[in-house]
Specification:
The complex is a heterodimer. By secondary structure, chain A is mainly beta. In chain A, strands 2, 4, 5, 9, 10 and 11 form a six-stranded mixed beta sheet that branches. In chain A, strands 1-3-8-7-6 form a five-stranded antiparallel beta sheet, with no helix packed on it. Chain A is globular, with a radius of gyration of 13 Å. Chain A starts with a strand and ends with a strand. By secondary structure, chain B is mainly β. In chain B, 0% of the residues lie in helices and 54% in strands. Chain B contains no helices and eleven strands. In chain B, the strands form two sheets. In chain B, strands 2, 4, 5, 6, 9, 10 and 11 form a seven-stranded mixed beta sheet that branches. In chain B, a hairpin with a 2-residue loop joins β7 and β8.
Amino acid sequence: ELKVEQNPLFLSMQEGKNYTIYCNYSTTSDRLYWYRQDPGKSLESLFVLLSNGAVKQEGRLMASLDTKARLSTLHITAAVHDLSATYFCAGSPPSTSGSRLTFGEGTQLTVNP
Amino acid sequence: DADVTQTPRNRITKTGKRIMLECSQTKGHDRMYWYRQDPGLGLRLIYYSFDVKDINKGEISDGYSVSRQAQAKFSLSLESAIPNQTALYFCATSDRATRADTQYFGPGTRLTVL
């Protein structure tokens, strides 16, 4: 059974600073997803990482995947207040072709002025 | 218009009542899912459907049932609601034709069982 753990669960940072959110998973995962959720809102897809060494970047966010270490990271560069949200990673066992997602607990990010 | 819609958006009900949550999508996706979200627990999969005739249990299906009325519609029922089913419920869809199979989420239904 796939288990997904994120850390930290709560992150308060200043604008302009860099930080990384970590996502560890317990067994082989076919792919790794990152989602963003604003308070009271739905989940928005950020990235999908499909292979070892994959790196995706969008604005101040960059996600990477190391399947050998069973680790994905979401790096935040020069944080701004608009990035305040909860970020989830999710993995899927290979046999389900990405359909049975197991989510981490989420990392609640607050960016302070 | 939103690609994935859920009705109702909010519902308060009493213990023992039957509740149906509905999900519709215009994305043309074949796969649909129901999740519940509880504070500090992330999202957990209740049921999923790969097409109209293929419905599968997720990790927390007890106390729930589903119906896939058409490719675009997937309903979740609570036959006899209990307070610990109070949660935020999300429907999602995905397209098996894409390698990424990314799931796209509806706006959510906030359910309170008294």
